[in-house]
Amino acid sequence: MELKELTLKKALNLLDEGKLSSKELCTLTLEQIKKYDPLVKAFLYVNEEWVLKQAEEADKKRKEGKRDLLTGIPLSIKDNILIKGHPTTCASKILANYIAPYDATVIERLKSQGVVFIGKTNMDEFAMGSSTENSGFFPTRNPWDLERVPGGSSGGSAVSVALRMGLGSLGSDTGGSIRQPAAFCGVVGMKPTYGLVSRFGLVAFASSLDQIGPFGLTVEDTALLLQAIAGNDPKDSTSAEIEIPNYLEFIENNLNTTFKIGLPKEYYSYDIDPEITKYLEKTIEILKKRHTMVEISLPHTKYAVATYYIIAPAEASSNLARYDGVKYGFRAEAKSLLEMYKKSRGLGFGKEVKRRIMLGTYALSAGYYDAYYLKASKVRTLIKEDFEKAFKEVDLILTPTTPTPPFRLGEKISDPLQMYLSDIFTIPVNLAGLPALSLPVGLTTDNLPVGVQIIGPQFKDELVLALAYQIEKDLSLKFIPPILKD
Amino acid sequence: MPITPDEVKKIAHLARLEFSEEELLAYTEELSKILDYFQELQEVDTSTIAPTFHPYKKKTPFREDEVETFENIEGLLKIAPELKDTLIVVPKVVKAP
């Protein structure tokens, strides 16, 4: 059996039919990691013994006739989600020795569904970045071109799925951190509606924007993973109490449903790489056969990046105050408490994290609060209302996921503002708390993946998946990085 | 420059971050550029707009105030930088009388 031909759903069938054991599948996955991870460096932590033990337990469960939603399936997890007894570093030196004392709610759920955790994936430190170059340990590389970035911040998760080092992954998305790397690596990545998935046990970056979400090789795989993690959690006070539909059933039942799809003119008039435009237009041509396409306006789009880079750092500066060297994490030698705080934080945090803490502290400080934080929070209202108005007219919105294909390592790292601007199409969704998914739709002439983004109304995650499933079926493409073909 | 090295120093103190002189100057330049970019928000009329602090409005959920024992106290202590028995050691915060 070849891993590159396998999807999560296919693997489940093989496991159900007894043609494959979880131990065999996980052993293959570990071999895949040994072969390809030295090239791309997607993982921060892989514990073989633990992986095989989990796989054996899953096989035992199956033998006893206990089959949960994902029994025996190997998944990778972004290193800002807590798995009890194992390291969670957020790719930061300040948490280099941190061992999670409890499970995140999503991990508890996946455990009860029989998942095998294959390892923890690399990311931009504390999820701050768009290239995984801000990892405090090492950068991750794009499997389609090793000289290019995989996107970020969940770069390691996207790469692990693209190279079949695990049949799916969980990441987190604060301003595009699932969708952008998914687009750059040729996999499906979804940011669910804010409140659909519990954030308990996700290391907080910007609490009003963060959301955990799945990466999959296909829309079906992504839907299955969302099914496993969605739902109310009393431990997260922002978690929604809504009925969770059966996503797989929903997308099957809506394969021929017609939608009214909005194309926001502000996105389409942006300076987009011609190769991205080419595939966007191709996708629109396909959609026109069944659906109604209408031009819409989201007039405050151009203010989204500035709004986001005030609000997210403001929340981060407050959330990251907890890393003080007292109870856990890195502690620098110091004579006084104040010196200990300053040194531990100064040495423990990386450049971008400190930059954002500074920005956030400034935006919240006396004299500047009104001009920055409060102003941005008001513009956020306008951005949110733009979407609310649009969704009175259309069912879903289609945009590019990114303005360009994956860029080169080092290309934007010295210019923070340029890096921030690369998130222009994904950021508004987080500010408004909406569900959105990136779907791979083609390859550039340089053989680099291109993604489109589908945005839905609040808590209509199933509609987003349904349209993605239709496009995926129509295109019927497989995204296998060339290094896997050798 | 919208922000001076002195201001950056003050913010660094508020954020409890130690910087070298070199870092201080680099951050001053970078933050100035970013803050300049933020100026575009000033062209938006928000005089009648209420702020959004949260994308999903929900009543604060209440629960009974009952004690739940955390079962992994050992795991919490194990990750502390310095321990004396079950106490976490920090630099002295009070002067001896």
From TrEMBL, chain A:
The family database entries (SUPFAM superfamilies) matched by this protein are listed as: Amidase signature (AS) enzymes
Q: How does the record describe its quaternary structure? A: Heterotrimer of A, B and C subunits.
Which reaction is the catalytic activity of this chain? L-glutamyl-tRNA(Gln) + L-glutamine + ATP + H2O = L-glutaminyl-tRNA(Gln) + L-glutamate + ADP + phosphate + H(+)
Q: Which family does it belong to?
A: Belongs to the amidase family. GatA subfamily.
Organism expressing this protein natively = Caldimicrobium thiodismutans
Cross-referenced PANTHER family? GLUTAMYL-TRNA(GLN) AMIDOTRANSFERASE SUBUNIT A, TRANSAMIDASE
Name of this chain's protein: Glutamyl-tRNA(Gln) amidotransferase subunit A
Instruction: Enumerate the Gene Ontology biological process terms.
Output: translation
Q: Which domain of life is it from?
A: Bacteria
Sorted alphabetically, the Gene Ontology cellular component annotations on this record are: glutamyl-tRNA(Gln) amidotransferase complex
Quote the EC number. Answer: 6.3.5.7
Query: What does this protein's UniProt record list under function?
Result: Allows the formation of correctly charged Gln-tRNA(Gln) through the transamidation of misacylated Glu-tRNA(Gln) in organisms which lack glutaminyl-tRNA synthetase. The reaction takes place in the presence of glutamine and ATP through an activated gamma-phospho-Glu-tRNA(Gln).
Keyword ATP-binding in annotation = yes
Q: Which InterPro entries match?
A: Amidase, Amidase_CS, Amidase_dom, AS_sf, GatA
Q: Which GO terms describe its molecular function?
A: ATP binding; glutaminyl-tRNA synthase (glutamine-hydrolyzing) activity; transferase activity
Where is each Amidase domain found? Answer: 25-465
Residue numbers annotated as active site: 78, 153, 177
Automatic annotation (TrEMBL), chain B:
Q: Which InterPro entries match?
A: Asp/Glu-ADT_sf_sub_c, GatC
Top-level taxon of origin: Bacteria
Q: Which GO terms describe its molecular function?
A: asparaginyl-tRNA synthase (glutamine-hydrolyzing) activity; ATP binding; glutaminyl-tRNA synthase (glutamine-hydrolyzing) activity; transferase activity
Q: List the catalytic activities from the record.
A: L-glutamyl-tRNA(Gln) + L-glutamine + ATP + H2O = L-glutaminyl-tRNA(Gln) + L-glutamate + ADP + phosphate + H(+); L-aspartyl-tRNA(Asn) + L-glutamine + ATP + H2O = L-asparaginyl-tRNA(Asn) + L-glutamate + ADP + phosphate + 2 H(+)
| Keyword line | ATP-binding, Ligase, Nucleotide-binding, Protein biosynthesis, Transferase
**What is the enzyme's main class?**
ligase
What biological process terms from GO does the record include? glutaminyl-tRNAGln biosynthesis via transamidation; regulation of translational fidelity; translation
Check the record and name the Pfam families matching this protein.
GatC
Ranges that cross the membrane:
none
EC number, UniProt record: 6.3.5.-
- Please give the family membership noted in the entry: Belongs to the GatC family.
Quote the subunit structure annotation.
Heterotrimer of A, B and C subunits.
Primary role: Allows the formation of correctly charged Asn-tRNA(Asn) or Gln-tRNA(Gln) through the transamidation of misacylated Asp-tRNA(Asn) or Glu-tRNA(Gln) in organisms which lack either or both of asparaginyl-tRNA or glutaminyl-tRNA synthetases. The reaction takes place in the presence of glutamine and ATP through an activated phospho-Asp-tRNA(Asn) or phospho-Glu-tRNA(Gln).
Return the protein name.
Answer: Aspartyl/glutamyl-tRNA(Asn/Gln) amidotransferase subunit C
Q: Which organism is it from?
A: Caldimicrobium thiodismutans
Its taxonomic path starts at: Bacteria, Pseudomonadati, Thermodesulfobacteriota, Thermodesulfobacteria, Thermodesulfobacteriales
Query: Quick one: which gene encodes this?
Result: gatC
